[in-house]
Structures are given as C-alpha cells and as structure tokens.
Amino acid sequence: MLLRTQPVTLLCIMDAVLQALADPNRRTMLEILRDHPATAGELAEAFPIARPGVSRHLRVLRGVGLVDVRQDAQRRIYTLRPEALVEVDEWLEPYRALWRNRLDALHTEIARGKKARN
Fold first, then answer.
1. How far apart, in whole angstroms, are the C-alpha atoms of residue 8 and residue 24?
2. How far is 8 from 17, CA to CA, in rounded Å?
3. Is residue 69 domain-resident?
4. Cβ distance 57 to 29 under 8 Å?
C-alpha cells in the first residue's frame, strides 16, 4: 500500500507546483528570484498589482516549496528553491527525449534533401 500512495503524493505535489506556475505573475516572480534574492517590496515594483497581491502570490509559491523566505532585520528576503522543480523536470524528460528524437530525424531529412539537390 505504501508504494501505491507514494507516487500519488508526488503527483499531488507536482500538480500543486504546476498550478502555482500557471499564473504569469508567479512565473515572473520566479524569473526575478532566479537572478537574485529579493524582498516583497522589490518584487512588487515589477508588477502593476498592489503589494498585498504580491504577498498572496509569494504565499502560494512558499506553500508549494518554490521559494524560501528568511528574516533580515525588518525585511523578508525571498529566494528561489529550484529543488521544487525536480519532479516536474523528471516528468518532462520523456517528452524532451521525444522531441530531441524528432528534431534529430528532421535534421537528418534536411541533410538528405540538401545532398539530393547537389
């Protein structure tokens, strides 16, 4: 029974991460945090939404483990946690391999076409 519930739990985590990533504002926040840690105020400057909205987005990102927060005096510093994307990356790998194979086959056909014209 344990083996059966473990994949479901991982799928639930991945579903929560994908739902969090579905929002373009959250994806932009992650892009900013990918480059450098930032406060909620710094992140709010990049968006046309009120600061409470930014805080709600950050709460969702923290809830699924995509960002960490640490206290620095009166400021909260947010950082990206790329480990939370591992399950999504592993799930996407077979699709990347499929497209790599298809693109390799396309490249081969293009090369054959060029040879045939010469």
1. 27
2. 14
3. yes
4. yes
Helical (H) or strand (E) element with 89? helix 86-117
Q: Is residue 55 part of a domain?
A: yes
Quick one: tokens of 79?
Answer: 């950082």
Q: Model confidence over 30-77: pLDDT tens digits?
A: 999 999 999 999 999 999 988 999 999 999 999 999 999 999 899 999
At 58, list the tokens: 């950050």
The model carries a pTM of 0.74
**Strands (E) located in 1-116:** 38-39, 67-72, 75-80
Q: Which two tokens stand for residue 114?
A: 């060029």
- Whether residue 92 lies inside any domain: the answer is no
3-state SS assignment for residue 73: coil
**How far is it, in rounded angstroms, from Cα 23 to Cα 30?**
11
**In whole angstroms, what is the distance from residue 65 CA to residue 84 CA?**
6
C-alpha 42/C-alpha 57 separation (Å) is 14
